[in-house]
Write a structure and sequence with these properties.
Blueprint: E1 2-4, E2 20-29, E3 33-42, E4 46-50, E5 56-61, E6 70-77, E7 84-90, E8 92-97, E9 103-108, E10 111-116, E11 124-125, E12 135-139, E13 144-148, E14 154-159, E15 162-167, E16 190-191, E17 204-213, E18 220-229, E19 232-238, E20 249-252, E21 257-258, E22 262-264, H1 282-289, E23 292-297, H2 302-314, E24 321-324, E25 329-330, H3 343-356, E26 360-364, H4 369-381, E27 385-388, H5 394-402
Parallel strand pairs: 7-11, 17-20, 17-21, 22-23, 23-24, 25-26, 26-27
Antiparallel strand pairs: 1-2, 2-3, 4-5, 5-6, 6-7, 8-9, 9-10, 10-12, 13-14, 14-15, 15-16, 17-18, 18-19
Helix pairs in contact: 3-4
């Protein structure tokens, strides 16, 4: 069972007719090999999976992050009929049933939980404080890529470069093999240790004959040469004053103007979605074409912007240098909001975004001054910059400046 998406502005819409949830039936024959037949089951929903005996299909309704305020785990039969609502959760991001149909893992306001999932015929409403069924928190700050072990006895997830696991019988005392008391939540996972070299060009290039705008006051070199070795400028100046190495590739750029690259400190470059990354991200090419070599995106999807920033740095994608806050620390309503009522809340939010690769966070619509001060203090402790969104009024903005933004 799989979902066919409706296309996007990066990869286009040509091959996205009839989006929805499909089943794919495969059969093998010696003469013909594997044959498959696909069938659309539903036009709505995402993240489909089979139940334990493959008689029904689970799916999530309401999107993921930046989706509906309430998400619902539903199921239908293999023909898309007999719909059932199983679990609802306000502020949830993901709802994932276990392979044995007995448990549901869910993220709610970024935290990760496990809950029992009794099939009573009535929808279960869940959050981290639910008392209608057993619920346990398993991740201190956040988690993504939640996936169950095949025997449904362990939940696994990632946060940044760490991989975490939680056994169910370590979270519920009524389980077989449970300890005498619930242990503390693991705050350190297994290091994934993916290490790549930053992309670094080799060789020497001389750009000859350009008009060069410098950063030395208003100095302009009318007929200049720039010599680059590897990834560094080694000399720059008038054509008759700069010696060009004999092994340099000379590029005639007469009639062109060369200037330092722009740093766009408030750039939105189209990483606000989920799914597959394009091999070529057209917004990056557009920015480079207009001289933007470094960008800072103060509101983006963490999972996409930081993975692409790493791919650009490693040379797998072409783009400017990419820095970002990732998902904003939003104080108003939304399934992505960051609840900050004390310093510990702020520290958890900063740890979450820093784990993805953020060097800055965006304090956005946290209405009270103490909330904004807690974000700034936590960020200072964790060596992360803070940028704000304007508060819409002059007095609100002045208080943000007083708070240290």
């Amino acid at each position: 069972v799989y979902r066919k998406e409706s296309g996007n502005g990066h990869q286009g819409f040509v091959n996205t007719k009839e989006p929805g949830i499909y089943t794919l039936k495969t059969q093998y024959a010696k003469k013909t090999g594997y044959q498959s037949t696909s069938k659309i089951v539903l036009k709505e929903g995402s993240n489909p999976s089979f139940n334990s005996d493959a008689s029904r299909i689970y799916y999530q309704d309401g999107g993921y992050l930046f989706g509906s305020l309430t998400k619902t785990l539903k199921s239908v039969n293999l023909d898309g009929k007999e719909p059932r609502e199983i679990v609802k959760s306000k502020y949830a991001q993901r709802l994932i049933p276990s392979p044995d149909d007995k448990w549901v893992a869910f993220t709610n306001l970024y935290k990760v939980y496990i809950a029992a999932m009794p099939m009573t015929g009535q929808v279960i409403e869940l959050d981290g404080n639910a008392t209608n069924v057993p619920v346990a928190q398993v991740a201190r700050d956040a988690g993504i890529s939640l996936h169950w072990a095949a025997n449904s006895q362990r939940l696994n997830w990632t946060l940044g470069e760490e991989y975490f696991s939680a056994d169910i019988n370590q979270r519920f005392l009524f389980m077989d093999g449970a300890p005498d008391s619930i242990p503390a939540i693991d705050t350190t996972g297994v290091k994934i240790n993916l290490v790549l070299k930053s992309d670094r060009p080799t060789g020497k290039i001389a750009l000859k004959g350009a008009r060069i705008i410098t950063m030395e006051g208003d100095k302009v070199i009318d007929n200049g040469i720039i010599v680059i070795e590897g990834n560094k400028i080694i000399s720059i100046g008038l054509a008759n004053e700069v010696s060009v190495p004999s092994d340099a590739k000379i590029i005639d750029v007469k009639g062109k103007t060369i200037m330092p690259g722009f740093v766009d400190a408030h750039a939105h470059l189209g990483q606000f979605r989920f799914g597959l990354s394009p091999q070529k991200h057209w917004q990056y090419y557009a920015n480079l074409a207009y001289g933007v070599t470094t960008t800072h995106d103060p509101s983006s999807n963490s999972e996409m912007v930081f993975s692409q920033a790493e791919m650009v740095r490693a040379g797998h994608m072409v783009g400017p240098r990419i820095f970002s806050t990732g998902v904003i620390l939003y104080g108003a309503e939304g399934d992505f909001k960051a609840v900050v009522n004390n310093l510990e809340d702020a520290q958890s939010a900063i740890r979450r975004t820093k784990a993805f690769g953020a060097f800055s966070v965006k304090s956005y619509n946290q209405p009270r001054r103490d909330q904004r001060q807690q974000v700034i203090k936590a960020s200072h402790e964790l060596n992360v910059e803070v940028v704000p969104e304007g508060g819409s009024t002059f007095y609100h903005n002045l208080s943000m400046i007083l708070d240290g933004h």
